Amino acid sequence: MTSNIWNFWAKKYDRLWVQKYSLSPTRNCISKIIDEDNKEDESLKVLDLGCGPGQLISILEKKYNNFKITGIDFSEEMLKISRLRNPKTEHINLNAESLDKIKDKYNIIICTHSLPYYKNLDKVIFELYRLLSDNGKIYISFASGNTFYDKLALFFVKLTTGPAHYPSDAEFRKLISNHFLVESFTIIKERFFMPEIAVYKLGKDIT
Ligand SMILES: C[S@@+](CC[C@H](N)C(=O)[O-])C[C@H]1O[C@@H](n2cnc3c(N)ncnc32)[C@H](O)[C@@H]1O
After folding, report:
1. The predicted structure's pLDDT at residue 156
2. Does the C-beta of 117 come closer than 6 Å to ligand 1?
3. What is the CATH number of the domain that holds 130?
4. Cα separations (Å) of 126 from 45, 103, 204?
5. In sequence order, which residues have a C-beta less than 8 Å from that of residue 16 and are 6 or more positions away?
6. Which candidate in 26, 43, 89, 101 could, as Cys together with 69 as Cys, close a disulfide (CB 3.0–4.6 Å)?
7. Distance 178 CA to ligand 1 centre (A)
8. How sure is the predictor about 2, in pLDDT bands with cuts at 50, 70 and 90?
């Protein structure tokens, strides 16, 4: 899949109907967990992978003066919007499959509604392990293909995004099992007709 479809959605993204029941509740959930985990005066390096137009970065930029934030996305149009919205953030146009080019370590890695579009998930998970500092946390969320209804609903979502694979909870846990431990797990389901959104907080498995 190319970044073209996301370039197409970039200017319309803030007005998409899924903002209300999916994307915004995810941002609220993740920023709440980050608030619970971090003190405002802590100086931390934060990576938002698949940051899109930077809506979550914007919340964090305003709240946390001492976060040094990097946003990565392979859609230049998404990045253009995030750059305007988040002047203090470093932005990198990069495919998640090429994270090996990044040499820094991060205390917090965020990835919301982007993972289902990565082709080589094993490689991305391995790189996230490398990029996370030893006591860092990953906050990751995606629409979860848990139930028959989820899969059906997400089939229609795919018509607007191009190829995607929405892992079930069991699949995701297996995928990360060699590298991370699940420290918390939340399901967001704002409306009966929405697929479940899974939100995981992961810590490095350094045993
Ligand atoms: C549904 S949007 C999510 C944006 C934002 N994280 C949010 O929660 O609103 C998916 C984003 O992932 C990006 N993306 C998809 N596949 C990618 C890849 N292989 N490498 C980098 N970014 C990717 C897209 O360009 C898009 O901005």
Report:
1. 72
2. yes
3. 3.40.50.150
4. 19, 14, 11
5. 9, 23
6. 89
7. 25
8. low
Range of the domain at 42: 4-204
Domain count, the chain: 1
Contact 201, 183 (CB under 8 A): yes
Distance CA 172, CA 125 (A): 10
Joined tokens for residue 93? 């146009």
* Shortest-distance Cα residue to atom 10 of ligand 1: 114
Average pLDDT of 94-121? 97
Judge if the beta carbon of residue 112 lies within 6 A of ligand 1.
yes
Across residues 158-179, what is the average pLDDT?
90
Least confident interval from 26-35, 110-119, 150-159, 168-177? 150-159
Which tokens hold the place of 35?
A: 């608030």
CA distance 94 to 73: 6
pLDDT digits (tens, 9 = 90+) for 139-151: 999 998 788 777 7
CA dist., res. 21 & res. 6, Å (int): 20
Strands 197-204 and 132-143 turn out to be antiparallel
| Separation of alpha carbons 51 and 13, rounded Å | 12
Residue 26 to residue 112: CA distance in whole angstroms: 8
